[in-house]
From TrEMBL:
The keyword Signal applies. PANTHER family: GLUCAN ENDO-1,3-BETA-GLUCOSIDASE BG1-RELATED-RELATED. It catalyses: Hydrolysis of (1->3)-beta-D-glucosidic linkages in (1->3)-beta-D-glucans. GO terms for molecular function: glucan endo-1,3-beta-D-glucosidase activity. Belongs to the glycosyl hydrolase 17 family. It is an enzyme of class 3 (hydrolase). The lineage of its organism: Eukaryota, Viridiplantae, Streptophyta, Embryophyta, Tracheophyta. One of its GO terms (biological process) is carbohydrate metabolic process. Pfam families: Glyco_hydro_17 (PF00332). InterPro entries: GH (IPR017853), Glyco_hydro_17 (IPR000490), Glyco_hydro_17_plant (IPR044965). Its EC number is 3.2.1.39. Residues 1-25 form the signal peptide. This is glucan endo-1,3-beta-D-glucosidase.
Length: 384
């Protein structure tokens, strides 16, 4: 899955003030990295873990429960998120024994030497047309939580990542709403589960796609969280926004509140900006990728927490997408250009996910962008 499946025209989102104490323990603002492996030229798990350490990442999310990766993460003090593959959800939703065995095989041998803290059931299940999995999702989440409890494993939060297109309405902001096809039958019971277990609503979002699909109306600097004099004020709440990230985040907050769950914590399961792409994918370049990722890390790691207009002062945990440029990801060129590293292990640009390096501390010059406006060249055609 990944960012391409989350392409969605997303302009303005929610703005509602939420006060009060959020369920669960204090949220850590540490930033992690997504470690995808859809490439045929990627370094070994052990080398990859060393690169993760060099990023000063405190968390890593993998898209399965690969034993070689988990062994490489043993005794590293890096928090780990593992994932149940989409294809296993139907069986898991109907069989407690199946769920128990999955935990026995993929969690028990590594825990607690590997700091598994999140177990995600599937990836962006609600993005594509239902193939019989939508309504199995929450039952599978319940069963996996039971399996963990039976093993007295209580530090692992269970959730599932959704793409931003789980929302059907985001403009005007006060209309931010989950899609009608999933809101009642899937999202509401999911929120009930997350609230009861004090877990997170995991969301993938990419301001790049929201900006690129509506570039005439959204400032690039605003999308990059780099704007100095660009703001948006929601007419219904008078909350003022200075970047697209906050608007997209608050849209999710508003949608959850609409269903009666204003206090569930939100975890950014994926966000990033492509460092390259196809000719027509303007704005996808190293300069913008570095700018966005550095700005997001700075925002998320600031202490005390900045939060968003709807959740001021609330820490936002997040995973940046992604560790590598992955050459086997399907879709347009941007899908293969979200990495902080090239497959040979060299950095695409300097970045410190701990947030301890100030923006002025990055010394290597970035290549200036040449494709921030739509490509005006002639389309290539072929005749047969």
């Amino acid at each position: 899955m990944g960012p391409g499946s989350a392409i969605h025209v997303f302009i303005f989102a929610l703005l509602i003030s939420i006060s009060g104490k959020f369920a669960g323990a204090e949220i850590s603002s540490e930033v992690g990295i997504n470690y995808g492996r859809l490439g045929n030229d990627l370094p070994s798990p052990s080398k990859s873990v060393e690169l993760i350490k060099s990023l000063k990442a405190k968390r890593v999310k993998i898209y399965d429960a690969n034993p070689d990766i988990l062994k490489s993460l043993k005794n590293t003090d890096i928090q780990v998120s593992i994932m149940v593959p989409n294809a296993l959800i139907p069986n898991m939703s109907t069989s407690q024994h199946f769920s128990d065995q999955w935990v026995e095989t993929n969690v028990v041998p590594y825990y607690p030497d590997v700091k598994i803290r999140y177990l995600l059931v599937g990836n962006e299940i609600l993005t594509n047309p239902d193939t019989g999995t939508w309504f199995n999702l929450v039952p599978a989440m319940r069963r996996i939580k039971i399996s963990l409890t039976r093993r007295n494993i209580r530090k692992i939060k269970v959730g599932t990542p959704s793409a931003i297109n789980v929302l059907e309405s985001s403009s005007p902001p006060s209309n931010g709403t989950f899609r009608s096809d999933v809101s009642g039958p899937v999202i509401k019971p999911m929120l009930q589960f997350l609230n009861r277990t004090q877990s997170f609503f995991f969301i993938d979002f990419y301001p790049f796609f929201a900006w690129s699909e509506n570039a005439p109306n959204i400032s690039l600097d605003y999308a990059l969280s780099n704007a100095q004099n660009v703001t948006y004020t929601d007419p219904g709440t008078n909350l003022t926004y200075t970047n697209l990230f906050d608007q997209m985040f608050d849209a999710v907050v508003f949608a959850m509140k609409r269903l009666g769950y204003p206090g569930i914590r939100v975890f950014i399961a994926e966000t990033g900006w492509p460092n390259g792409g196809d000719f027509e994918q303007f704005g996808a370049n190293t300069y913008n990728s570095a700018t966005y990722n550095r700005n997001v890390v700075k925002k998320l790691t600031t202490i005390p927490a900045i939060g968003t207009p709807a959740r001021p002062g609330v820490a936002i945990p997040a995973f940046i997408f992604s560790l590598y440029n992955e050459n086997q990801k399907p879709g347009p060129g941007t899908e293969r250009h979200f990495g902080l590293y090239y497959p040979n292990g060299t950095e695409v640009f300097e970045i410190d996910l701990s947030g301890k390096t100030p923006l002025s501390g990055y010394k290597k010059p970035l290549p200036l962008p040449t494709n921030n406006e739509p490509y005006k060249g002639q389309a290539m055609v072929c005749c047969g």
